[in-house]
């Protein structure tokens, strides 16, 4: 049994993200199982921590240079290896920042690919078919590289470890004929094979694995078929070229639809994953990620990708990675021992939840809904399932709320959400509340994600429907993340739901920088008058904010013991008038409490400077000045306290304020210098920072004296009361 589980966004693509211009070149494993190395079709390589969906490092070659093969990690030294402009080799580690200053070697031939093996070191494959280990290559970078192939073009390559011996396999093409080369490096043994041709079709991509001295090569053909080729490593035949016969492994067709695959990945001996376009007569092609059981020739599960993909698919640590629209998406999967019961969807598994993928009612047709919710359904049962689904769909509108309430005990989550698709609003929400009230299970968070997705999809199909209170309740009471419900904040932005956005920013640890910027821009653009009517959590600002209404400063008046005498009243009035005159020179909070609370939520949101900065540069100048004024106000407020901490519940920290000020100035400094209304603000900020630097410099001068006094006080243990006067000269 195989199933697709929860998905999440690893990073954005295009402006502000990776893959500028030409998309992704490749994704390779990093030095840690939770790390991946992403190389774009340009100048940049980025190291990501998958569980946090955040970049750990980013390196670029100079303008005019192009990385021409995927960057890989040397697992033995934890260094990174890149080739730019075909022949220039670069090696660096995590501490290096500028690639111009790292190790460089110019090679004598063009490099096709570098393969890094955990226990065998990096192998360098040249475009002419020559292979060298990295150590041998670095001994003499300009050594001659033999040309193994003549007029052939390498289409694919892979490397394995068989025992203690590295093995490299690559496929080439010439005039429509395809050849396979197997190189055993330690024995300097190279074998060449010719692939048996298939009528009216050609191989699109390859994948392979090795077991018991036999390489199993899988070929994805243009006729929507997967063929298998067995290549034994032990070859006694010295014949120069052998013909490799192929056997049909899998037909990628189901119920009249054909999957035109673009990428193929082996999951284990019984399962393969195919990314491609599902086509049926008279219908638009739909891009899908699918898992197939090769043992029983069945489709196990699929997920439609309506935003489109680049056709590339990678698989590491039980996660798929692929582009989906303008983001790089990761989706987890699970594979269990293949059995006939699992292949036809009849395996009883009390430990496994039915939540295998999220429901998108806007894009999935009836057949795909069955595949999404019943990932074990076989090809043979497709028509029966389709009839059952239609009968349910036709009768769901007639189901009464009391009937629906009895369903969760007998139906899986996927089936329940499908049956509720056309249910009345009250019954729909009651059932979702009942579903969430169940005890926590291993897939509880995925279930909550499905519930939120169901609510969001109903909002999309019915613009008048928006369950604000229910969504807010779910976000406030459940440990959700952005990746579990990626459309939630997009809908909240569309509906201008400030309270829900504030709560998401405070609770979600993995919000993309693009969404954080969209929230910031909305918060800054909305008028104070509109915010007066909005319910916003003010806990983070109520204890420190100074505001002014109708040009009159609002101050809190403290009455001692509940009354004052006339004399005390006169003294109080005098003090208030003096303090008001003094504070007239101090800038009040430039925004109201509601907007301040919303901006504080943005300050709390996690971000990567490299990905947020390009978005901040698009912030209108007037909004940037307003945001900087508020940050300056917070900075001054923090500096008034000895511990530089604002009072209240979860206020911004001094580090968050400083980081955002630096980021905003980096993005808009040139514009702000030219704006007349920003001149005074920048001047005040400069003077305040300069005064603080001087103050701390003076403290540093007497630091030694203060430490000496502290040491002297520790030495004395006076038992009697005394007054001592110490002079610091």
UniProtKB/TrEMBL annotation:
GO BP annotation list: maturation of SSU-rRNA
GO MF annotation: an example: RNA binding
Origin superkingdom: Eukaryota
Keywords: Activator, Nucleus, rRNA processing, Transcription, Transcription regulation
Pfam families for this protein: Nol11_C, NOL11_N
Annotated coiled-coil segments of the chain: none
Nucleolar protein 11 C-terminal domain boundaries: 417-727
Residue stretches making up the Nucleolar protein 11 N-terminal domain: 1-334
InterPro entries the UniProt entry points to: NOL11, Nol11_C, NOL11_N, WD40_repeat_dom_sf
Keyword Nucleus in annotation: yes
Name listed for the protein in its UniProt record: NOL11 protein
Taxonomic lineage: Eukaryota, Metazoa, Chordata, Craniata, Vertebrata
Gene for this chain: Nol11
């Amino acid at each position: 049994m195989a199933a697709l589980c929860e998905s999440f966004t690893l990073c954005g693509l295009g402006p502000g993200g990776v893959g500028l211009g030409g998309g992704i070149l490749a994704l390779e494993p990093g030095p840690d199982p939770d790390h991946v190395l992403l190389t774009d079709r340009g100048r940049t390589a980025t190291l990501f921590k998958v569980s946090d969906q955040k970049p750990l490092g980013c390196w670029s070659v100079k303008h005019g240079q192009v990385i021409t093969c995927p960057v890989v990690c040397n697992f033995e030294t934890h260094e990174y290896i890149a080739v730019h402009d075909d022949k220039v080799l670069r090696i660096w580690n995590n501490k290096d920042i500028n690639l111009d200053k790292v190790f460089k070697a110019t090679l004598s031939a063009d490099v096709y690919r570098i393969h890094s093996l955990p226990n065998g070191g990096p192998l360098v494959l040249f475009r002419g078919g020559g292979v060298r280990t990295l150590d041998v290559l670095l001994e003499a970078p300009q050594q001659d590289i033999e040309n193994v192939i003549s007029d052939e073009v390498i289409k694919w390559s892979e490397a394995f470890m068989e025992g203690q011996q590295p093995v490299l396999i690559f496929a080439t093409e010439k005039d429509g004929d395809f050849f396979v080369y197997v190189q055993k490096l330690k024995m300097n043994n190279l074998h060449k094979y010719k692939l048996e041709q298939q009528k009216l079709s050609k191989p699109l991509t390859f994948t392979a694995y090795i077991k018991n001295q036999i390489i199993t090569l899988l070929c994805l053909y243009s006729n929507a078929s997967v063929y298998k080729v067995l290549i034994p490593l032990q070859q006694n035949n010295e014949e120069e070229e052998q013909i490799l016969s192929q056997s049909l492994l899998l037909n990628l067709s189901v119920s009249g639809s054909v999957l035109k695959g673009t990428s193929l990945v082996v999951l284990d001996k019984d399962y393969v994953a195919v990314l491609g376009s599902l086509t049926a007569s008279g219908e638009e092609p739909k891009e899908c990620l699918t898992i197939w059981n090769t043992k029983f020739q069945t489709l196990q599960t699929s997920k439609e990708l309506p935003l489109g993909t680049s056709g590339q698919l990678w698989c590491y640590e039980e996660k798929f990675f692929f582009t989906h629209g303008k983001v790089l998406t990761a989706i987890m999967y699970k594979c269990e021992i293949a059995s006939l019961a699992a292949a036809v969807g009849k395996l009883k598994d009390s430990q496994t939840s039915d939540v295998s993928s999220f429901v998108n009612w806007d894009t999935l047709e009836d057949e795909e809904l069955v595949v999404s919710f019943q990932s074990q359904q076989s090809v043979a049962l497709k028509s029966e399932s389709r009839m059952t689904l239609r009968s349910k769909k036709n009768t769901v509108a007639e189901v009464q709320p009391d009937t629906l309430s009895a369903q969760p005990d007998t139906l899986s989550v996927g089936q329940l959400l499908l049956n509720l698709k056309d249910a009345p609003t009250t019954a729909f929400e009651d059932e979702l509340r009942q579903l969430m009230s169940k005890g926590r299970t291993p897939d509880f968070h995925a279930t909550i994600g499905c519930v939120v997705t169901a609510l969001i999809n109903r909002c999309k199909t019915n613009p008048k429907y928006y369950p604000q209170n229910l969504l807010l309740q779910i976000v406030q009471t459940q440990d959700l993340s952005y990746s579990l419900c990626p459309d939630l904040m997009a809908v909240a932005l569309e509906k201008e739901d400030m309270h829900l956005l504030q709560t998401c920013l405070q609770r979600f640890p993995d919000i993309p920088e693009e969404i954080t910027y969209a929230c910031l821009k909305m918060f800054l653009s909305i008028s104070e008058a509109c915010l007066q009517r909005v319910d916003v959590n003010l806990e983070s600002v109520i204890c420190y904010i100074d505001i002014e209404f109708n040009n009159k400063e609002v101050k809190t008046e403290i009455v001692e013991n509940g009354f004052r005498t006339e004399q005390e009243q006169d003294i109080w009035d005098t003090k208030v008038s003096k303090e008001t005159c003094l504070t007239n020179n101090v800038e009040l909070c430039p925004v109201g409490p509601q907007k301040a609370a919303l901006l504080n939520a943005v300050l709390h949101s996690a971000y990567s400077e490299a990905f947020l900065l390009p978005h901040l540069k698009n912030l209108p100048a007037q909004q940037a000045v307003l945001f900087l004024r508020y940050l300056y106000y917070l900075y001054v407020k923090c500096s008034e306290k000895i511990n530089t901490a604002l009072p209240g519940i979860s206020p911004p920290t001094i580090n968050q304020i400083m980081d955002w000020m630096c980021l905003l100035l980096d993005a808009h400094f040139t514009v702000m210098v030219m704006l007349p209304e920003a001149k005074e603000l920048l001047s005040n900020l400069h003077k305040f920072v300069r005064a603080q630097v001087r103050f701390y410099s003076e403290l540093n001068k007497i630091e030694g004296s203060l430490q000496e006094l502290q040491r002297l006080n520790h030495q004395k243990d006076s038992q009697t009361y005394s007054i001592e006067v110490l002079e610091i000269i």
